[in-house]
Amino acid sequence: LRALGASLGATQVILDGEIVAFDQDGRTSFSLLQQRMHVAEPTRARRLANETPAVYLVFDLLYLDGRSLLALPYDTRRELLEALEALDLNGPSWQTPPAFEGNGEEAVQSSLANHMEGVLAKRRTSAYLPGRRSADWIKIKNIRAQEVVIAGWKPGSGRRAGAIGSLILGIPADAGGHLRYVGNVGTGFTQDMLEDLGKRLRPLQRKSHPFDTDPPRPAVKEAHWVRPAIVGEVAFSEWTADGRLRHPSWRGVRPDKSPDDVRPET
User: Fold this and answer.
1) What pLDDT was estimated at residue 235?
2) Which of 182, 203, 163, 175 lies closest to 259 in space, CA to CA?
3) Distance between CA atoms of residues 251 and 246, nearest Å
């Protein structure tokens, strides 16, 4: 992304966007992006950068040459973004995708037809609210996904003997930092993910669970508890009647989120 900064020259901006990786069909792929994350070895990092290039998608403009744009309507911010002559909106490692203009239901159906994850609907008159959830920006998801907090892990068997077999998950139950148990996840991991999780969880070990009430004993037998500091994301089929995730599959760590950010998705 150094080239993006160079293209701006003396223009000072704060941009909002997201780093993604595209699959061979041109769709964003969370699993491909995971392969690029937390790679410290330079030779491997360069190889992965060539094999799985990452792209910064620019969505919004929050600040321009000494002026905050947060209070301006979304449409105005987009106009200012697209009028930035200093910024080549489609560079070697960044793009500025157009905002979809049209019927919302058609946008959702188009995202389904193209096997995309969903649509982000933004009220055109909305201001930008940093760090806050707003009814003016709504996610319409084609797959059910939930951010979760890792509370512990259970050892595996077979090829995973002595390593992580499944993660024990929770979501905040109150403002005091206690968690509500929502289930375990044992699928969706790559070997690199498991190794990365092991390194992250090792220094967070604790003796007792962090849940507001005792979780079901069979689900946490032989559990290794950790301080609830790491946020991840799972895909799942539905919520059960007792508030558990049915058929969850691990999608990856969310280093951009803190446990306080996690809310039940509806």
Assistant:
1) 92
2) 175
3) 15
